[in-house]
Structures are given as structure tokens and as C-alpha cells.
Amino acid sequence: MSQSQSYWIARPGTALHGELSIPGDKSISHRAVMFAALADGSSRIDGFLEGEDTRATARIFQQMGVRIETPDASSRIVHGVGIDGLQAPAEPLDCGNAGTGMRLLAGLLAAQRFDSTLVGDASLSKRPMRRVTEPLAQMGARIDTAAGGTPPLHIHGGQALQGIDYALPVASAQLKSALLLAGLYAQGWTQITEPHPTRDYTERMLRAFGVAIDFEPGKASLQGGQRLRATDVVVPADFSSAAFFIVAASIIPGSLLRLRKVGLNPRRTGLLAALRLMGADIVQLDAGEQGGEVVADLLVRHAPLHGAVIPEALVPDMIDEFPALFIAAAAARGQTVVSGAAELRVKESDRLAAMATGLRALGVRVDEVADGATIHGGPIGPGSIQAHGDHRIAMAFAIAGQLATGPVRVHDVDNVATSFPGFDALARGCGFGLECGA
Ligand code: S3P
Fold it and tell me: Which pathway does the record list (predicted)?
């Protein structure tokens, strides 16, 4: 993997105070661009995440002939080309760091008349794609991967797809969404069953775009041959980005932070339940609705945390929040036990290994097992950390530095811009000690 030059030095700042607006949800922003591009008519997206991952997805649709305007930062007007209006791209399509982009596009592109190639950065190029290409092949798709089932994906167009009745082997919203998108083009019904319910943004948003889709937690089905109708989308603030400030305010003494209008889809907020089990003080205020999603302000006050056994049933609902949780666990009194979380090994990095190694470098005891870890809370020391190009590992260790007895140097932090552009400035603004270097 190419190593970026950028690094942070994180060290204790002040108690955290203020009211913060967190950037738009990454999962919803990806889907909004995709579905708007496939719709008949023009859709406006507000609150769009100006992150590298979601901008890569928008660029890919522009390469396939979709006109996208940027009337102002965090807004897009997407002039949809209709379900059958995408054009063959002249070049490979670069998903950057985005697993969501690549997996959903694999489903969509498998059903097009033309060939295409999906590529990604060093991290994405190591991630497993057979979980998507194998069920798509059962539907009639032809996709070649690199040896080992990793990107690039060479997708052969012009295949007639059949609907599929498929039980997902892993709880993955990306996989579910890829199959539903292919199912839109397939003959007959596509029915998906999940081992545990995952985020349902694809289902909700397809319905908002006029698609007849049946879904309930753990199940979704739709019939092929439907069209999408343009609609406007308001993207709520990303809970997974808010998570870093929720943990930071919980563990930094004297802190009181208000996070404005955070998306609280229940399939995303497992971290709130986990932190409350550990003694956190988090209050929801002014609950309302934005773009069909529940949003509320979160008031987070410092509280002494204690270790807990994280229920396995919570894992899919907090799948992106384990780097932040590991820091809360390091700051807590006693042991925190994570299990049933083997999926963390195939995220933007092997997050179990990256967090265990990083925390140990700061003097925190972590016992790592195949599907989890036990974190022994205790003093956090100074040290040097590799983020492995993983945005969430970098942000997690920026928090660790706030409690450390000396500076924490976090290497390879450029990819924070994939999901949370401006994280460091927002963090400094509310009290973090965080310097950037290159
Ligand atoms: C996502 C689903 C999750 C999550 C990722 C975004 C999505 O991945 O980790 O950050 O937008 O559907 P899996 O569905 O593979 O668990």
C-alpha cells in the first residue's frame, strides 16, 4: 500500500464544548447520486457529503453520461438518464476507497448493455468482492475479478439477468443493495434474506424514487423491469462521523457537546446502546424527520465509563463504530469484550488488528481473537500509530491522543477526507489538541 506523508499529532486539548454540524451521511449520499442518475427527470440532493468516496461515485456517473450540477457545496442536481440511459464509459471507473461505491456499482453495471471495469485504491483493491460477484453470477452476470476475488472487476455487459431468491451469508447492506440493483433489471422477482437486519437505505430510497419494493427488517424483495421517478433527497448528518465526537465528549473530562440533527436510523445507532451500557450520558433532543430519516440533536456529557460485554446482536448496527468504541473501552474502567465482529477484518483495513496494534503501542492491553477482542481499560501513553490508510482508524487515535500522557503521532491520515472532510478543523474548534503535518 502506498503510504501517505500526512500525519497528525494528537495531544490533550481542553474539555470539548460547542454545537457541531456533522457532514452528510456517506451511505445515503452514494445511493442518492446513483438512484437520481437512473431516474427519469432531475433530482436535487441537499446535504450531500463532499467526501472523496461520494465524489468518486458522482464522477463515475458523469463518465457514463449523467449531467450533475453543483449549485452550491453539499448540493447536487442530478439529471437522470433513466434506468436504460447510461452510456458505456471510455475509461475504467475509479471508486477510490469506497466499498459501497464498488459493490453497489457491481450490481448495477452487471445489468448494463456495455462492458465496464471498476478499480479502487490500494485498500479497496484488497477487499473481498466474491460475496457480490458469486450471487450476481447466479443471476446470469459475468464478472471477472483478480485472483483472490479482489478488484479490479471486469464486468461483461449484455447479459440477461434472472431474479434470485438469496439468503446472504453475511449481514451486509452493500451486498443486499448490489443484488437489489441487479434485481431491478432482472426477469422476475429478487428476494433477499439477511442473517441480521442491516441498514435499509436502499430499500427506503428506492421506494422514495417510486419503485415498488417490499421490505421489513431482514427481508427485501422487488420485481424487475421498474423505472425510477426523480425525487429530491435531503441527506442527514452521518451518525458514523458523529460517533467520534460522541466518544470524545464521553471520555474527555468536563466535556459537553451538542451534535445537531444527526441521522438516527436504528440500523446505525448500536454505538449509543453500547456506550449507554458502559455508563455514557447521551440525551436525544428535538427529534424530527429529514428526508424520511429520524434525526435528533445529541447532547453528550462526559461520564466515567466502565467496561461491558458488547452484545453480538448490536454488531451490525454499529459495524463502522468499532474503532471509536475501542477508544471508549481503553478509557473505561475494566474490560470490554467484543465478539461476533469478524467482518471488521475486511473493512478499509483489518480494523481488529489495526486497533489492537495501535492501542498496544500506547500501552493499552488488548487480547485479540479471530472475531473480536478484549480491551483492558487503563492509562493511555504516547506513541506512534499507523492508520493503514483507514479514515476511521485515524480519527479514533486522534481521540486517544486527547487522553494520552504524551503526544500520539498518527500516520497516513489522508483518507479521513473520504468520509469526513474538515474533521481536524472541527475537532480543534471544539477543544481537541490536533496538529497536522505533511
Ligand atoms: C455500508 C454498509 C456497511 C458499512 C459501510 C457502508 C453501506 O458495509 O460498513 O461503511 O452504505 O451499505 P457492509 O454492508 O459490507 O457491512
Answer: Metabolic intermediate biosynthesis; chorismate biosynthesis; chorismate from D-erythrose 4-phosphate and phosphoenolpyruvate: step 6/7
C-alpha cell at 424: 481536524
Cα separation, 156 vs 342, whole angstroms: 32
- Report pLDDT digits (tens) over 253-277: 999 999 999 999 999 999 999 999 9
Q: pLDDT tens across 20-53, in order?
A: 999 999 999 999 999 999 999 999 999 999 999 9
What is the spatial distance between Cα 268 and Cα 271, in angstroms, rounded to a whole number?
A: 8
3-state secondary structure (DSSP) of residue 159: coil
- Separation of 170 CA from ligand 1 center, angstroms? 11
Nearest to 393 by CA among 310, 324, 315, 339: 324
Longest Cα separation, the chain: 61
- The CATH number of the domain where 212 resides is what? 3.65.10.10
Whether residues 71 and 174 fall in one domain:
yes
Please report the DSSP string for 170-226 in residue order.
S--HHHHHHHHHHHHHSBSEEEEE-SS----HHHHHHHHTT--EEEETTEEEEESS-
- Are the C-beta atoms of residues 296 and 286 closer than 8 Å to each other? yes
Query: 174 is in which domain, residue-wise?
Result: 26-234
Confidence at residue 4, expressed as pLDDT on a 0 to 100 scale: 56
Quote the cell numbers at residue 96.
477510490
Q: Which amino acid is at 306?
A: H
Q: What's the structural domain count of the chain? A: 2
Mutation test of ligand 1: which of 174, 344, 347, 418 has the most ligand atoms closer than 8 Å to its C-beta? 174
Q: Does residue 341 have its Cβ closer than 6 Å to ligand 1?
A: no
**412 given a catalytic annotation:** no
Q: What is the mean pLDDT of residues 304-326?
A: 98
CA of 194 to the centre of ligand 1 (A): 14
Amino acid 2: pLDDT: 44
Active-site residue identified among 320, 390, 412, 424 = 320
| Ligand 1 mean position, distance from CA 174 (Å) | 5
Q: In terms of domains, do 121 and 15 share one?
A: no
Q: Is residue 1 part of a domain?
A: no
Cβ(298)–Cβ(275) below 8 Å? no
100 lines ligand 1 (CB under 6 A): yes
Tell whether 243 and 391 lie within a shared domain: yes
- Which among 235, 229, 181, 296 is positioned nearest to 28, based on CA atoms? 235
Q: Which residues pair with residue 187 across a beta bridge?
A: 162
Looking at the structure, do residues 254 and 310 belong to the same domain, yes or no? yes
